[in-house]
Amino acid sequence: MGEEAIRFGILGCAEIARKVSRAISLSPNATLYAIGSRSLEKASKFAASNGFPAHAKVYGSYEAVLDDPDVDAVYVPLPTSLHLHWAVLAAQKKKHLLLEKPVALNVSELDQILEACESNGLQYMDATMWMHHPRTHNMFHFLSDPHHFGRLQSVHATASYRVSPYFLENDIRVKPDLDGLGTLGDTGWYCVRAILWAANYELPKTARALDKPTYNEAGVILACGASLSWEDDKVATFYCSFLSDIAMDINAMGTKGSLRVHDYVIPNKEKEATFSTSSNSDFVELSIGWAPNPCVHTTHTDLPQEALMVKEFSSLVGAIKFSNSKAEEKWPTISRKTQLVIDAVKASIDNGLQPVQIKD
C-alpha cells in the first residue's frame, strides 16, 4: 500500500462493517488502520476475523479511534440513533466521514452532520454502494438519451428481503430506540435513492404513503409503500419490506424507451451485472411480439461495488489531504435529498396517509 493510502478507522463491529472492511482491503487507495468497539475483546475478535493487517490499531472505545491522529477517515455503521453524536464528533476530530445508511433519523439531524463536515473541510459520503457500480453509470447514460429513452414518465422501485424470526425480535432495525425508521430507513432508502437517481435528483413535490403500512408491536415499520409526484407529469412509487421475498427492482419508463434492472442494490454476481432496455418498440403483426425486442446489457467490473465506493471516497479524501482540494458537494446534496423524501413519507404515514409537501 502506497504512502497516499487513506487510513480508515471503523466505529463498531456491525455485520455490515465486515463487508466494508473487505472493501477497504480491496481498494487500492485505502487501508484498514483502526477498529473501535465498546469492548477491546470484541474489537480484537473483529480485527482478527476480518483481515485487518497486523499493524492495525485495536481500541476498546469509539473515542479512541477518533483521537488517533493517524486516522484519516472513519466508517460509521452504528445504529441510526447514534449517528448524530458520533458523526458530528468525528467531524470535530477532523475525520472524513463515510456514513452508513440510513444516515439520520431526520433531515434536521443530517443537517447538523453535514454542517460539521463542511465547517471542518471534510468529505462526507453515505454508504449507498450501488451508486458506485459501473452499471449504474451505464444505466443512467441510457436514461439520459433523448432519442432512445426520451423524457422520464414513471419509476417504480422495490427493495425487500424476508427476515428471520430472530431478526424480528432482536435486530437493531426493529428497535424504536436504535433505528426507529425500520424498513423505511433501511430498504426504503434504496428505493428513494433509485427514484431520485432516475429523475436526475429533481426532488418530487409531494409524497403520499400507501395503505397499509405494517408495524411490529413496538411501532416500527416492517413494510410500507409510497407514491411521489412532481410538478410536471412524472410519478413514482416504491415498496419496501422486511416481510417479502428478496426484490431489488427499478422499472423506469420514458416517452421513447424503458429500463429494467432486477438486482440494483446487490448484483446477483459480484463482478458482472445486467440490465435490460427497450427503445422505440411496437407490436409486430397480430400483436404477437415486440419489434425491436428488449436488449440485455452486461457490465463487468474488477472490483465489487463496495470497493469502488471506498475507492471513490478515498480519492476525494486524498485530493483534500494531498492537494488542498475542496470536498465534493455532490454526495452530501444527494444524501440530503434522499433524507428529505424519507422524512416526507414518514410524515405521511404518521398523518394518516395524507399527502406531504416536500420542501428543500
Give a summary of the structure in a few sentences.
This protein has 360 residues and is an alpha/beta fold. It contains ten helices and 18 strands.
Structure description:
The chain is of the alpha/beta class and 360 residues long. Helices cover 34% and strands 24% of the residues. Strands 7, 8, 9, 10, 11, 12, 13, 14, 17 and 18 form a ten-stranded mixed sheet that branches. A six-stranded parallel sheet has the order 3-2-1-4-5-6, sandwiched between helices. Strands 15-16 form a two-stranded antiparallel ribbon. A hairpin with a 6-residue loop joins strand 15 and strand 16. Helix 4 runs parallel beside helix 5 and helix 5 packs antiparallel against helix 10. The protein starts with 5 loop residues before the first strand and ends with a strand. The model has no long low-confidence stretch (mean pLDDT 97).
